[in-house]
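Researcher: Structure prediction, please.
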Amino acid sequence: MSFKTLVVVNHLSGSVKNYNIRELVSLYLDLKKFQVDYLFIEDRNYLLDIAYLKSQEFQVIISVGGDGTLLHLAPLLINSEVVLGIIPIGSGNGFATHLGYKPRNVIHALEVLNRFEIKTCDIARINENYFFSNFGIGLDARIAKDYKIKKHRGFFMYAWLSLKSIWGFKAQEINYTINQKNYREKAYFFNVFNTNLFGYNLGIEPRANVFDGKLDLCIIYQFPFLMLPFVSIALLLKKPNLLGKYYKRILIDSITIDIPTRSLYQIDGDPELSNTSLEISVLPKALRYIAP
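Model: Predicted structure follows.
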């Protein structure tokens, strides 16, 4: 049986332009199993014609890029019979890494696709959109904004911007509602995780995963500046509980966040500005994907 397959190649993502994807696919993908068409994203203003793509009735969508590329494809994938495959050669690749793909290893990804083992996992909805890995208000949103406009990306650029962004950053006051109970927090990081990673194998909460039907709300409260080295080490070791009273984790099904007008946030590393409150909820087992 041959599956009608669309390979979406995002040339704006990470190191994608360094690879001849057509040639790699022709050499390593089982073309008896996959009937392949291509779609190339070349421009930042490019919008996928989702209605047209849906009409083509693709059975498999292969995303070539990073977490941001998946955001473009979400309307084709969520709660549908379409199966997702990933060739993770974007910048962060947090979602693919969490699922078990090897970042920037094209041949491994194509071998995974050929095995065609299908599983399901959770996705998160945010207002009328979706995210696969994480949402954040605070320091990570500023880092995402600065990182997005850099021509040359990579781990060291991400690390440099992280250190640079800390200087002068002030904790933000955030109002939110869970189970009809209102809260007000002052935090450096205010994140909702579906996976345990931002990208580059960095994250806050190692217990977050896409198979538990829950989202992880993770808050790092304002802490004394002299604690910064200790906080950095705790997060690098993925042991946030070492932060004691400065860290809180709550398993949630949904959350409403009331934030000031024109507030910056990020979803899967893509910076956004909000003019309204944000409604976030988990969609259990809403995505079918090819599993490593």
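Model: The radius of gyration is 19 Å.
Researcher: Thanks, that helps.
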